[in-house]
Design brief:
Elements: E1 2-6, H1 13-27, H2 39-63, E2 74-83, E3 86-92, E4 96-101, E5 107-108, H3 115-121, H4 126-129, E6 137-138, E7 142-143, E8 152-157, E9 162-167, H5 169-172, H6 178-187, H7 193-206, E10 213-220, E11 225-233, E12 241-242
Helix pairs in contact: 1-2
């Protein structure tokens, strides 16, 4: 699953984010490398592979912008790779990946690169930080003026049934906590990834639809995973803005 969310205040971000998503998807068609066979080796190899994927996506984003643009396209990035029950995720910016099992507690697997996350790291409750005036100011992004291209990477062994969900902030604006998203998934009259993605887009639009909404899902059963499928819709306004003036506080994997 790959999600890129174009930054609304930058030029041609819609075209650039689509180009970046397609480039990342193509780069990830091959299985992730397994390293030297140890958990540490697998993590290091996967981190390098996702870092390489971010750079490939970034090249596509940059190529979609005129070289002389004073406001080059930029986008956030989130990716989830599921192989034999092992989930590897990475992100740059504030697009997210969740694991939502049918039974048990869901988990937010990514950590935003944002002013809101800096407040959370400093002890501000998530509900307060995510509704602050600077909540959607991002501290990292893809694009010609990107501060760096090192994703945060995390891994999890998942046991189905459940859903892997990647999304832009256009969805999680209205259901940030895993339990909130899980409740929407459970309430949706949908059983396929495509139908559920569209149902979640509908929920976000009904809740306000104040930003671009992209949802990508893969179903994890007791056997092989199914999917992915994507639902996407552009809301009337954009809320994600790069904030290079915000001091960057990140927890990054070595890449």
């Amino acid at each position: 699953l790959v999600v890129l969310d174009g930054v609304s205040s930058s030029q041609d971000s819609d075209v650039a984010s689509l180009a970046g998503a397609r480039a990342a998807r193509d780069a990830l068609r091959a299985p992730l490398p397994r390293g030297v066979g140890t958990p540490e080796g697998r993590t290091a190899a996967a981190t390098k592979a996702l870092t390489d994927t971010v750079r490939i996506a970034n090249d596509a984003v940059v190529a979609a912008t005129a070289a002389d643009s004073t406001n080059p396209a930029s986008a956030t990035f989130a990716v989830a790779v599921l192989e034999a029950g092992h989930l590897t995720v990475g992100n740059v910016g504030d697009s997210r990946v969740y694991w939502l099992p049918d039974a048990g507690e869901g988990r937010l697997l990514t950590i935003d690169d944002s002013a809101a996350q800096q407040q959370i790291d400093a002890g501000v409750p998530r509900a307060v930080a995510e509704t602050s005036p600077q909540a959607h100011a991002i501290t990292k992004w893809l694009g010609r003026d990107a501060p760096d291209l090192i994703p945060r990477v995390a891994e999890l062994d998942v046991v189905g049934p459940g859903w892997v969900l990647a999304c832009s902030d256009g969805l999680w604006n209205y259901a940030s906590e895993p339990a909130q998203l899980a409740a929407q998934v459970a309430a949706a009259p949908a059983t396929t990834p495509a139908a559920l993605a569209l149902a979640l887009v509908g929920f976000a639009n009904a809740s306000g639809g104040q930003d671009n909404i992209t949802v990508a899902l893969a179903r994890v059963e007791a056997g092989p995973a199914t999917g992915p499928a994507t639902g996407t819709e552009t809301g009337p306004t954009g809320q994600t803005d790069p904030a290079p003036a915000v001091p960057e506080i990140t927890r990054e994997s070595d890449g």
